[in-house]
Amino acid sequence: MAQQGPTQVPTSTRHSQFILSCSCYLHACRCGFYGDATRECRCTPAQIQNYLGKISGPLLDRIDIHVEVPAVPFQELRGEAKAEPSSAIRERVLAARAVQQTRGGANARMPSRSIRKHCALDDSSERTLELAVRRMSLSARAHDRILKVARTIADLAASETIAAKHLAEAIQYRSLDRNYWN
To answer: How far apart are CA 93 and CA 1, in angstroms?
Structure first.
């Protein structure tokens, strides 16, 4: 999920407004092999930092879910592993969307004033979120996005409340903050 709808982008001379709805794909370095278990990265640490420096913190903040996707080994591609059928996943998504509509719309578009009401945490989860925000130096925007993603994960699990496991999963989806920009 990424920020959608009108977005103000300030520059040194003016504010421009864009409609933003996108998925982003980013390698951690120019050659594309940094962190790859099967290929060696040819980039120097300075090149990697320079490459990653092209993505600003404010832009990164507007991306709800950061996921690293490693190459899938051939045996797994050809294996007979049983996966949840798409029809079952579709039903869970439709049920979660219906719940979100009763709250006023998609969680990704939930206004800040509604977050405390719909994304309430117990004391333990509150401490977990506080620790994540401090250790990862997350912004207020990233904090809110973690809560919205946790609410969505809880909705997909048909849970009325955000459990610690939902929050932990949402925090894990901030891997770019954790691994490259901190």
So the answer is: 14
Q: How far apart are CA 92 and CA 84, in angstroms?
A: 11
* Closest listed residue to residue 166, CA positions, set 133, 116, 128, 139: 128
Looking up tokens 């050809």 gives: 78
Sign of CA dihedral 165, 163, 85, 105: negative
* pLDDT at residue number 67: 78
Residue 94 has pLDDT above 80, yes or no: yes
45, 126: one domain: no
Query: Per-residue pLDDT for 97 more than 70?
Result: yes
pLDDT, tens only, 78-93: 888 788 899 999 999 9
Q: Say how far apart CA 13 and CA 176 lie, in whole Å.
A: 30
Residue range of the domain that includes 48: 5-10+18-66
How many domains is the chain partitioned into structurally? 2
